[in-house]
Amino acid sequence: MAQAKAIAKFWITTSDLLDHVLAHEKRLQKAEPTKDVRIVHRLVSDLYCRYVQLCRNLARCFDQTLQVQKREVIERLLEAAQARMLEFRTKLQEIELSEFVYVDGALQEQHLIPDDVQAVRPCYFPATRPAELQALIDSRKLVLFGSEASDTEDGSMDESEHEDETVAEPQGIRRPVVQRDRRKERLRGALNLITAHEKARQARVRQTNFRLHPDRYYPRPIDEEIVDVPYEFFYRPGQFMLYPVKRTVYNWDFQMKKKDVARFAYYAPPGWEEKAPAVDEQPIAKELTRKQIAEEDNSAEIAEAEAAIRLEEAIAQMKLNHAAAKIQRHWRMYHFAKAQKKHRYERSKFLGLFEDSAAKVQDEIAVEEVRAARRDQKPEFDRTFIDAIADEKARILRTRGPAILEDITDFVRAWFRQWYDEAHAFDVIPEPFQGGTVLIVRGETLTPLEYLELERLKKLEKLKSAEQKKKEAEAKKAAKERELEKKREEKARLKELAREKRAREKKEGKTYDFTEPEFVSNAYLTLEETMERYRKDWAFVSELDNVHDLPVMEWITLEKFAEVHQELHAEVHELLKSERELLQMALCKDERMKYKPPKPKKIPRVKGAKGKKRKEPIDPTADRSVESMVDELVERSVIKSYRRRTFEDFVGDYNYAAFERRNYLEQDPPPGMGEVITILRSYLYGMGPVVAPKPKSICLLGSHGYGKTLLLEAICQETGSVLFDLSVESCGPVEPNDMAYFCQLVLRTARAMQPSVIAIEDVHRAFCKKVPSADQSLDPTKLGKHLFKLIVKQLNPEDKVLLVATSNEPWLAKVGPLKKCFDKFLLLPRPDYGSTVLLWQYALGRFPTVPRDFGVSALAKVTTGYSAGQIIRCAKEVLNIRRRMQFGRKPLQVQELLDHFLTGAQDAPQYPITDKEYDKYVKWHRKVDKLAKQRAKIVRERELLAEQQKAKASGGKK
Predict the structure, then answer these.
(1) What's the pLDDT at 922?
(2) How many angstroms separate the most distant Cα atoms in the chain?
(3) For the chain, which has fewer Cβ within 10 Å, the N-terminal or C-terminal residue?
(4) Amino acid 1: pLDDT
């Protein structure tokens, strides 16, 4: 109950935020048209940040709202808000001419941080499919995607972290079988046990001999000073123990103790002089017996003996004081150093310089469990709502159905009477596909007076001569020609205006008018209409009092009453049509006219573009069931499983200086790795149940180890998609003549199992200019011939199917065909210093024994540019089990990780990708990406202008 009220209050806050955002949009529409791109960027980025926060709040409301009618309203608002947010992001990309956009100015104005405007995982992910289809996939043994290649080559995690996944091993891999001799193992264990007990018995005997006969068994002390050597006992599994098996205690020591060297002059600090403390002059008669004092006759000897005893006591006390002071000094130094280290650790953790190994996320887990429990109640509320609708409809049919039927028949019969009285005729009842008797009730049919006027015009038409008809036809034809000419002139005028506008924008720059459709879209109008309707419908509904999220029955009654009314109209249509025919026959008989039954009207066919009939493509897989298609693709290793990965596994930081460099310094800074996640998530909004625009296909570009496979698997995991692998190896066994059928089979299965992802790794091999000799047997280009026509072109906007490809050598492919198949080309950026620091922290943080405050700043500075795969593989190979066991006596050093890159596993140094190699990706990306090409052109113009100004300034100085 408390949670329901909390969600209702949060919805009220979200609706206020939506009103606030719409008010900002209205103010934007009143702004004057401008050519200043910075002003437009500031206004659009401000609204983009507001819509990101609005979408997050609406997503939470949609996720936690159980009331079905209110959830429908929130879903419409969420769809429109997400579409509006994506429109503003697209507008920012057009302004900045890049997929990577920066809104730091809006963040400063709204007092936000970068995480507040980053795309998050939608609440409706992963998408669900019907239970029978999901069971069909779960019952098949799937091959793991990417099992042929090494994980760490693409910046992904170890396979050992995903051992709990139920996937089948590849057929060619078998673990070695080890035969164990159980009898031999038992004999060896018994022998080790007997040997250990015998050695323990001998040790106890030796100890007893030393205790009872010390003169005989103790060795004589040698003259030289012997230093104690501490004994360390190391136990290794598989090595039987020596003497200390039964914890035998050795309480004798035959070695001489180390002498105290504090009195030696060599150890005395300069300028220090040892002085004996003051000695109490009282006699020490306690130590000397009375008998000894009485026996001493010489008082001088007695005084000398007493002085010697006092001196020895003073020296002993001085040694004790020196030892205590030394112990205290070292203990305080140790305690202070330990406290300082702990203080530095806590301060660094508080500042966020590293994450603690045992993060306290119990509160977050508890909150998420409560939300998940409330989310799981949605199906039950949906069933209750459907049952309430069915019960209400049955009640209306039972109680109001007969009365509604009588009302409809009475109204139509009165309509017959009116026509007979006023026109002495009976109009034809419209067909059901035209509206039926509902049009009669609404009054949307011909009136008797209109019918009489049409009859009069028909009679006049018959009295006209052939010449008059010809003149009227020519006049109509001329009027039609004049209308078409006006339309052609208007079209040519608009085309000329558009051409002049483009030429003016090219010469003077684009003028941004905030009242044009590019700023006032259908999504904005939908938001306004939905909120207006919500205020009107829910004005008298108390949402805070409805703690049990019950449906509003008044709305259900009105809706079902209208539906029942429509159904009863269809039922009574045939009866009234028969009555009308009987009346018409009787009227014809009275008027002595020939009865002509009305011709049945046909349902008009749906036509395609330009008035042509829609031609459905021939589907060769139409006669196959979904189960048979899935089985065939599983046998071909096309449908595969994938590791459970998310976008959070793709580690990277943002470029925090890019906004200033782009907008103030007019530079083209490289993007950060962390910005890739926001771009990909903005592509995936349409893969869920909520309608949102999405691209049909994406191509990820980057070198080895940049995380392309990780991102591909994260896309599948977050959307809950079925993975279809169309790589060259998977398509190799398919014959070229069967490739068209194979592509249509994959597409139909992907549509049936949607959401689905069709993956193509190394897509450049399918479009390569020259097939390598190693791939001649696979014929990789046979997929590229059918990819666009049979897969990409056949995908509809409403299909939850996405084509994702990766490539590490795109320049080997033909640019035209490859560019035609993909809507988006995303070039993964190189790791900068911030991303390298996060990568090292992630790679080392996977090992619990590595200190969390391990300094990686200098290491990241040196290794900037190395790929994520290289860094993770370095940490894995250096921090093996043997090295981690030595952490207690040999702490980890930065030099060890750096030496791995300098030497390598094969005694060869490893280097990051060079600027020249990365420029090949950049140049190829500019060929296929329109925004990148335009931005490169603007950058070149700026550089040329700067050089001209510099040359002009230097010439003026001369």
Answers:
(1) 92
(2) 179
(3) C
(4) 58
Contacts 24+ apart (CB under 8 A), 591-597: none
Calpha distance 633→621 (Å, rounded): 13
Residue with more model confidence, 764 or 908: 764
* Residue 465 amino acid letter: S
Q: How does residue 238 score in pLDDT terms, banded at 50, 70 and 90? A: low
Positions of E strands within 762-800? none
**What single string gives the DSSP state of each residue in 20-78?**
HHHHHHHHHHTSPPB--HHHHHHHHHHHHHHHHHHHHHHHHHHHH---HHHHHHHHHHH
Cβ atoms of 102 and 654 within 8 Å: the answer is: no
Of 907, 845, 851, the closest CA to residue 876 belongs to: 845
Backbone angles phi, psi at 273, to 5 degrees: -125, 125
Structure confidence by residue, pLDDT tens digits, 411-427: 888 888 888 888 888 88
More confident residue, 305 or 55: 55
- Per-residue CA distances from 553 to 95, 385, 397, 543, 550 (Å): 50, 10, 16, 14, 9
**Token output for 366:** 């508890």
Axis-axis angle for helices 68-96, 37-64 (nearest 10): 160
Per the rule left: phi > 0, alpha: psi between -120 and 50, beta: everything else, 610 is left
- 286 — phi, psi (to 5°)? -65, -35
How is the chain split among helix, strand and coil, in percent rounded to 5? 60, 5, 35
* CA–CA gap between residue 112 and residue 36 (Å, rounded): 25
Residue-level pLDDT at 21: 93
CA distance 779 to 782: 6
Q: Are 429 and 576 in contact (CB under 8 A)?
A: yes
- 557, 392 in Cβ contact below 8 A? yes
721 or 232, which is more confident: 721
CB atoms within 10 A of CB 464: 12
